[in-house]
Amino acid sequence: MCGIVGYIGSRPALPILIDGLRRLEYRGYDSAGVAVLAGRELTVCRSAGKIAALETAIGPAGIPGTLGIGHTRWATHGRPCEENAHPHRSGPFVVVHNGIIENHLALKKRLQGRGYAFSSETDTEVVAVLLHSHYRGDARRALAKTLAEIEGSYALGILCIEEPDRLYAAREGSPLVIGTGAGEQFLASDVPALIAHTREVVYLENGETAVLRAGGIEIADAAGKARQARTRHIPWDPVSAERGGYKHFMLKEIHEQPTACLDTFRTRVSQEKGSVILDDEVGLTPKIMAGIRRVRLLACGTSWHAGLVGEHYLERLAGLPAEVDLASEFRYREAPAEDGVLTVAISQSGETADTRAAFLEGGSSGGFRLAVCNVLGSSIAREADGVLYTHAGPEISVASTKAFTSQLTALYLLALFLGQERGRLSRAEVAKHLADLVRLPALIGRALALDRPMSDLAQRFAKSRDCLYLGRGMNFPVALEGALKLKEISYVHAEGYAGGEMKHGPIALIDSELPVVVLAPRDGSFSKMYGNLEEVKARRGIVIAFTDRAGKDLHAKADHLFTVPRTNPFLAPILLAVPLQLFAYHVAEARGHDVDQPRNLAKSVTVE
Ligand code: BG6
Question: pTM value?
Answer without folding.
Answer: 0.80
